[in-house]
Amino acid sequence: KEILEKYHDLFTLQWEGVIGNIRVPSQAEWEQLLTNCSAFLFYGMERFISHILLNRLVAMNIPKCRLMILLDLVRSKQSYQRITNSDIYKSCLHIALERPTETAMLLSLTGVHSIIANQWYTTLQENAERLEILSENLLSIGRTTGQTVHILRK
């Protein structure tokens, strides 16, 4: 919410989505947000792909999405329990497709142009810091995604 308020005058007037932990988006909401966006930000727990139906994602066409930022791979006791319970019903191949590199490949095949994503598990605080750096460099300063990722790597 702080970042939305801080960058409100730049681009956030056009942003739509689900904020906070009030409710979990439905599959239809995920699909609508993904197919109608020019940029997509996921800031949440566990693996991004674990929140949507994989078979529906791979059938999607998302060519309008120029940038997808996945600040995921954060783990808590509750999220770990949720993911463990849902993984019981998935094949080993399905779980493998939810890994960061495979997720990026699948999203690229659906038409997403650029993907910025975590490669390993992290903390909420570290993702908050990444989101601040991304927002400042992409929205305020106007750096390219490549320049911004290079800054993040430092």
Structure description:
This protein is mostly helical and 154 residues long. It has one domain. It contains 8 helices and 3 strands. The protein has helices at residues 2-6, 27-35, 54-58, 77-87, 92-97, 100-110, 124-141, 145-153; strands at 39-43, 67-71, 114-117. A 3-stranded parallel sheet has the order 1-2-3, sandwiched between helices. α7 (124-141) packs antiparallel against α8. The longest helix is centred in the last third of the chain and has 18 residues, at 124-141. The two termini are 26 Å apart. The mean pLDDT is 91.
Q: Kindly estimate the percentage of residues that lie in beta strands according to DSSP.
A: 5-15%
Sketch the topology as an H/E string, one letter per element.
HHEHEHHHEHH
Low-pLDDT stretches are: none
Number of helices: 8
Mean of residue pLDDT values: 91
- Cα distance, first to last residue? 26 Å
Got a strand count? 3
* Domain module tally: 1
Radius of gyration: 15 Å
Query: Strand count, sense and closure of the main sheet?
Result: 3 strands, parallel
- Taken from the alpha-carbon principal axes, the silhouette is globular
Structural class: mainly alpha
Residues in helix, %: 40-55%
Protein name: CFA46 protein
InterPro entries: CFAP46
